[in-house]
Amino acid sequence: MEHLLAALRAVAEPTRLRLVVLCARGELTVTELTQILGQSQPRVSRHLKLLCAAGLLDRFREGSWVFYRLSRSSPLGALAQQLVAACGDADPAIALDLQRLAAIKRQRADIASTYFRENAARWHRIRSLYIDEREVEAALVDIIAAADPRDLLDIGTGTGRMLEILAPRVERALGIDQSREMLAVARVNLERAGLENGLVRLGDMYQLALPDASFDAVVVHQVLHYADRPEAVIAEAARVLRPSGILMLVDFAPHTLEFLRDEHAHRRLGFADSEVAQWCGAAGLDPAPPSHLIGDPLTVVIWTAQRRAGPWAAEERSEEIPLAVLEGGVR
Ligand SMILES: C[S@@+](CC[C@H](N)C(=O)[O-])C[C@H]1O[C@@H](n2cnc3c(N)ncnc32)[C@H](O)[C@@H]1O
Hints:
Elements: H1 2-11, H2 14-23, E1 28-29, H3 30-37, H4 41-53, E2 57-62, E3 65-70, H5 76-87, H6 92-127, H7 133-147, E4 151-155, H8 161-166, E5 172-177, H9 180-192, E6 198-202, E7 215-221, H10 230-240, E8 241-252, H11 259-264, H12 273-282, E9 285-287, E10 291-293, E11 300-307, H13 323-326
Parallel strand pairs: 4-5, 4-7, 5-6, 7-8
Antiparallel strand pairs: 1-3, 2-3, 8-11, 9-11, 10-11
Bound molecules: S-adenosylmethionine.
């Protein structure tokens, strides 16, 4: 009861209620919240600190930025949801806040689409070298439908495309990428698609800040060819899979297009089935026969592998996206 009373006391102040309403609409930085509320940053930060301490908001850091959102790590996040619903958006102060929030979201989308436009020609050129991506995506959707995972990790999520197509089929999905610009595009895409169960976080595929055995499915789509240690990426993906969890790797079959190395920073010109199978085996995964989607000149391969039973006791397995992630543990 004390927790509940503390949460109710924390939100019983106009600015703090406005902050809760705003954070229910997405992940927002202190700077954005300061712009919307028209109050000083120290003041807004103080309110945010109180709301986090009361368990109504979560805070996570991405490089030098700090984001706030309605809590998913505390049961009081559900109370915050109810308060937001009860508050509605008819109140003039709330309506103005939401108008300003919409302007900030438009601004974010513009920045993201400028970045996307600047890189789109390069990406388009690579895409024209292999089969229609929709075929690859349809194959991945089939794999997910058969495996029926509860949660999914997308390593090297980029613009969040894998999350867009796969998150609707799981309860929770998390995308990790090392590029803040890519994550900005991904956030806009997820928001546009209305995917509330999808999150993206800054992180390094060689060192995921995630516990062992915390996901049912992991996808690594068109990322491995950038890796200088692909076997380490596979081992890290295997580590975070629960026993019987499924790894989906999508990349190119061996090819000779050197320009992908010179102009697009690819380190590896595709992968042989045998080496991927060997890396999977060494990481405690049982590889299944790969599927080859033949294109000209590039062939896309989907390798899947299942996590062998691990040393974890059932109660030690993480059942949800770990709190550390939601609170900013992925750096
Ligand atoms: C070609 S994009 C693929 C994006 C996405 N998987 C897709 O298929 O649409 C490769 C992504 O891998 C990310 N990446 C490269 N090295 C990484 C690392 N060490 N840790 C996390 N992400 C990385 C890049 O930032 C980029 O967004």
